[in-house]
Amino acid sequence: MEVGKHLIRLKSVFIKSISLGSFLLLVSCGEDVTQSTLVLEVSTEKFVVRIPAEGELEAAKATTIGMPGGVFEPQVIAWLAEENKLVKKGEVVVRLDSRKYIHRSGQEKFEIDKANIGYQSKEATLSNEKAEIKNDSMLIGDELTIAGKYTSDDLRVYSRNEIIDSMKNQEYLEAKQGYTEWRGDSHDAKSASELELLQLKKGQHAAKLGMYQNMLNQLEIVAPHDGVFVLEKNWRGEKARIGETTWPGRKIASLPDLSEIKARVYILESEAAGVKVGQRVEMYLDAYPEQKIKGELEQIDSIAKPRNNNNPVKYFEAVVKISSEMLEHWRPGSQLKASIFPSEKDKVISIPSQSLYVENGEYFVYRQDGSDWEKVKVELGTRNNAKTEIVKGLQSGDRIALFKPRGDENAAL
Q: What are 191-198's contacts with CB under 8 Å, separation 24+?
């Protein structure tokens, strides 16, 4: 533009049009008017509201990769497959640290061996005790036989004291034999109980060993089907990493179905006015900025929230349904930039937002009226970053002040 070259003379009006998409004119108005400003000639044109967003591709459907159902303790991630890598069914994608369970399994094996030795030792001891009781019973039986064999039926042969002693000795042996039989029966019951208790303790250690062995078998997580291995973000927006502790129920990764891809985008809260489901979206992958991806806003959160704990800035999270034909290089997790179009209108009047002014809650512009300016009340429609739609108050061909003329103290919007 060569606006600086135009001379402004009193007592004359000189308007020079300058091409700037619209007509910008340098104006000098009237004999007693010393103010000048750039002028915009209003015309109808296409008006577009474009809201920026950013995000990444994701699969519409995906199989979750997480800790197995039989693992109920926190685990440390020892190894992860390469992210965005194609994996085959049965291929290991996550390996959890097994050292704890190897150690515990060793301890239980030791306890089982110890229980086996204790059982054998107790069994030998009980067997010896049983043999001792049996020997006592046999000895008492022999003594009773001898006592009965050498006892005379003729009471005249022995003295009274001898007869009494002989009777007492036989009664004692019979009582002793009864006691020995009771010992034998009690020992059998006691032996069975003690051996059963040892077997139960051994069974407890065997059950723990089986549990730890089962845990070891589940610490290698394999792909349930072919797919692309994609790490999932936790509530802090962080992906799983080697050495990190993970908890039962947490999603570590996913195997997406590549037959249907969507985009998850984040819209800055301060720029999300007017965004709603069904609006047109254009996207470009960071790695392929020359390829336009067309889509439609399918879902948007009702509440804005921070994307991570380290940044308080809030975003609305939205899902975009992709209508473009899918290309081979599209992968879940690919970063992208997006533009959402809340408003697209043809043949409407729109002016730069800097030309609008407010007074007592009403909006107005300065419209040229011959060699003077008049304040014209206008009604606003939608806005974008630079322009505002005028639905009432101006018509095509009107000329307005691009900037506020000197002498008016109202503040611009």
A: 191/126, 191/129, 191/130, 194/122, 194/126, 195/119, 195/122, 195/123, 195/126, 198/115, 198/118, 198/119, 198/122
Q: Which H or E element spans position 211?
A: helix 160-218
Q: Taking phi first (over 0 means left), then psi (-120 to 50 degrees means alpha), and beta for anything else, what does residue 220 get?
A: beta
Domain-ending residue, one of 218, 244, 269? 218
Read off the DSSP letter of residue 153: S
Residues whose CB is less than 8 angstroms from the CB of residue 5 and which lie 6 or more positions away in sequence, other chains included: none
- pLDDT at 371 (0 to 100): 82
Asked if residue 25 belongs to a domain, the reply is: no
- Crossing angle of helices 160-218 and 99-149, in 10° steps, is 160
User: Does residue 242 share a domain with residue 154?
Assistant: no
Residues spanned by the domain of 249: 64-94+223-253
Per DSSP, what are the bridge partners of residue 357? 364, 412
Whether residue 357 contacts residue 411, with contact meaning beta carbons closer than 8 Å, is answered with yes
Q: In terms of C-beta density within 10 A (0-12 exposed, 13-18 middle, 19 or more buried), how is residue 96 classed?
A: buried
Handedness of CA 310, 313, 319, 325 (dihedral sign): negative
Q: How far apart, in whole angstroms, are the C-alpha atoms of residue 159 and residue 157? A: 7
Q: Are residues 88 and 152 in the same domain?
A: no
Could you tell me which residues come within 8 angstroms of residue 254 by beta carbon, excluding any fewer than 6 positions away?
A: 59, 62, 63, 64, 65, 230, 232, 332
pLDDT band for position 352 (cuts 50, 70, 90): very high
**Structural domains in the chain (count):** 3
| Whether 143 and 192 share a structural domain | yes
**DSSP code for 226:** S
Report helix, strand or coil for 148: helix
Domain CATH code at residue 369: 2.40.30.170
CA nearest 228: which of 253, 251, 262, 256?
A: 256
Burial 178-191 (b: 16+ CB within 10 A, else e): eebeebeeebeeeb
H/E stretch holding 92 reads strand 92-96
Residue 201 buriedness (CB in 10 A; 0-12 / 13-18 / 19+):
middle
Residues 262 and 391 in one domain: yes
Rounded average pLDDT over 101-119: 91
Both 237 and 273 in a single domain? no
- Each residue's pLDDT tens digit, 209-249: 988 888 888 888 999 888 888 888 887 778 889 999 888 88
Distance of CA 274 to the CA centre of its chain: 29
Which helix H or strand E contains 76, and what residues bound it? strand 75-80
